[in-house]
Amino acid sequence: MVADMKPDVLIMASAENTLQRLASGAEGEAAAAEYEAGMRRGLEDLKPSAASVVVLSKPPMGQNLQTCVTKVSKPADCATTVTNEWRAFTGSERTATGARYVDTQLWVCNTSGRCPAFVGATPIRVDSGHLTIQYAESLAHVMRTTLLAG
Predict the structure, then answer these.
(1) What class does CATH assign to 2-149?
(2) Following CA atoms 11, 20, 76, 123 in sequence, which dihedral angle do they give, to the nearest 10 degrees?
(3) What's the CA angle centered on 52, arms 49 and 53, to 5 degrees?
(4) What is the rounded CA–CA span in Å between residue 140 and residue 77?
């Protein structure tokens, strides 16, 4: 489909559970190596068909507000921190891509690696991984600026 469309920009992204969803069932370092190799091959195949390729890092996981929020909790109780696993995966992914790589960590977390559940009154995530429509829409300017900067 990409070869037929020949887009100006191809945007790719992964998910937190990417390594757990490999068809081979590989785990740990074997899964990371398999993902890297697949990412390289896939991008090599796609690059000739797109004027530009941008790979977005997966955002660090958050807490599911449906289970985190209680009658006595406060928003800070639902905050998380960036994990070492996330850092390792994105570092590996950045190396593997050979394309323009955009680290999205600061789109959902602060510079200290703390990931709040809300920005102002807007919840960031629907569950532990998916952004709310409202928060995703608030990132439109950030995404546009990021894409134009490259």
Answers:
(1) alpha beta
(2) 40
(3) 90
(4) 27
Helix (H, G, I), strand (E, B) or coil at 48: helix
Please report which residue ranges of 6-139 form alpha helices under DSSP H: 28-46, 65-68, 84-97, 105-108, 133-138
> Do β-strands 118-119 and 122-123 pair in parallel, antiparallel, or remain unpaired?
antiparallel
Domains of the chain, by residue range, sit at 2-149
List the structure tokens of 35: 């993902």
Token pair 């697949």: residue = 38
How do the pLDDT tens digits run along the chain, 150 residues long? 999 999 999 999 887 778 888 899 998 888 888 888 888 898 889 889 999 899 999 899 898 888 888 888 888 899 999 998 888 888 888 887 778 899 999 999 999 999 999 999 999 998 988 899 999 999 999 999 988 886
Query: 70-77 long-range CB contacts below 8 Å, 24 or more apart?
Result: 75/116, 75/117, 75/118, 76/116
Cβ proximity of 124 and 117 under 8 Å: yes
Helix (H) or strand (E) holding 64: none
**This prediction's pTM:** 0.82
